[in-house]
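Technical note accompanying the year-one report. For the benefit of new consortium partners, we illustrate the data format agreed upon in the data management plan: each record pairs a sequence with a structure-token string. No post-processing was applied to the example shown here.
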Amino acid sequence: MNQSNPISKNIPLQIWVILILLNLCLILSIVNSEILKKQEVKNPDNRSTTSVLTNPPTPTNSSTVIPKPTFDQEIDTLTENQDRKLFFFSSNPSGKYQIYVFSPGLIPTTQLFGDEFEKIHPKTNPDQTKIAFSAKKNGYWDIYIYDFLTQSEIRVTDTPEYEGSPEWSPDGLYIAFETYKNGNLDIYIKSLEAINQSPIQLTDSIAADYSPAWAPNGREIAFVSTRSGEDEIWLAQLDNVENRFKKISQSPDKNNEHPVWSSNGDFLVWSSDVNGYPTLQKYSYAGENSNTVQVSEGSYPVWLENKIYYIQLEANSNYLSSRKMNDNSVEISSTFIPGQVNGLSVMNLSSAHSLLFKELSTASDRQISNSTNCFQDNNPDKKTYLSELSDIEAPNPYLIGQVSNSFLELKSQVSNSIGWDFLNSLEKAFSPITDPTNPGDDQDWIFTGRAFEFNPLTIYADLVTLVREERNGQIYWRVYLKTRFQDGSQGMPLKQLPWILGTRFSNDPTKYETGGNRIEIPEGYWFDFTSLAQSLGWERQSALSNWKSYFSGARYNQFVCKNGLDWYTAMNEIYPIEALQSPTALPSATITPSITPTIRYYRSPTATLTPTETNIPTRRPTWTPSP
């Protein structure tokens, strides 16, 4: 049957035409949209800028090299802060003293000069274009001046005697310095305009005079002198012929050293021991109202503008710090300085010449680390073992293998520096745990294989002298060795009053109670053994609390390579933990004095009693009835 759709019959032909046209328009619109999308993919730069919701561009790798800032731009960056400072100091992190320069947060610690000659006591001139120092370039200590602008160097002195601690006059035309002649330290003044002329002798005392500090007015020089029997601060008034020298400090039995003037010349600052620590003392004088006040802890002060910079001297380390003098607030917190400091100078970073920065920027090979390490782990098995020290005289010539090479390096450097083998004979090296300890020293490092004690007989032979130092309430000893050659080619003159432990046996109650006393500075050239040992990681030990009454308690001859370990951890390297946890205490020697017989010129004979035989009856067994 043939049926037709009634709805299609009722729709006019015009409507069908309209519907067909609308479908064609819709199809053309869709096709056109697809074509536009393909064109946008092929030509992304021709995208419409009127669209609001656009995807962010994807980052791509660029081969364009960003230019680095020029050297002048680096200079501008470093000097844009006018308050930045450049520090020059002499130290011996590698064993020999060199001059290093650094600026906290900007310039790492870098050796100033590339040669290997030892240098001490750096001092910049008033306009901060030159630096004076003492160097051992021809085998003897002489004064040199290096010009940062011309990059040239001149020698100020040329003698076989020691010369050091150069100090500029305010106009920069003269240099005051200390020199060792005829067995004594004295201060001389040298003209830089007539450098070939002989220097002028300022002091001529039988006592030691050293460490000059020129006042800003140019008419006074402060210095350290032992002419009163103690190392005190004195003042030389250059305009006076009579009564030229005036004593400033009044602190006997203390180490007074390193005087320096304030920028305006109203104050004088120096380092002095107070309560067991080096402390800065500020002296102001206005006629009869002069007084001294304590400023801060520290030594080697440098007063620049309204701030004072100084070195904090700890027992086995050094730190740089500074304070503002108007409110005594800390400006630079403690910054570690490697080695033992032997001179400090400060320069404004904005005053430094671009040639100096250029030299420092290309001296990466002269930068040093801030760590001293005596521990050398050369054992691939990571095991701790005792290594025998060849050619060493000691009861047990052993140290653990990780520190034995460092000890031999210390032994070699000391021998080369003083001309004789100081560490060839030791009182102790390693001691087994079964040996008795010193009274009051149950944790003796000599049991760890990381410590040694040099032969105390060198003291009685006058080859070793000790300087007493107090750090944080503890007593330490600085050990100086007498050099073989006393012609100025080895060591330096001593500038501290030594401490003699043996005077406690001099039948003087006062010296017995104090454990000895200070004496005058001995003649000759001496070498700082403690400083070299510290640079190689060997630390000195503090005296025990009983050192005044027990000689061995002074521990002046013991040096330890701790490498950051405590005693128990170090002991556990060579002993099992069970051996350290034994309830039985380690045997200890007694300090109870034994009765010493009094020697008399005549002794009366005493009759000796002859023993008599006593008859003792022999007991016989008795019969016991059985029950």
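Partners are asked to follow this layout when depositing records. Residues 122 and 247 are 27 Å apart (CA to CA).
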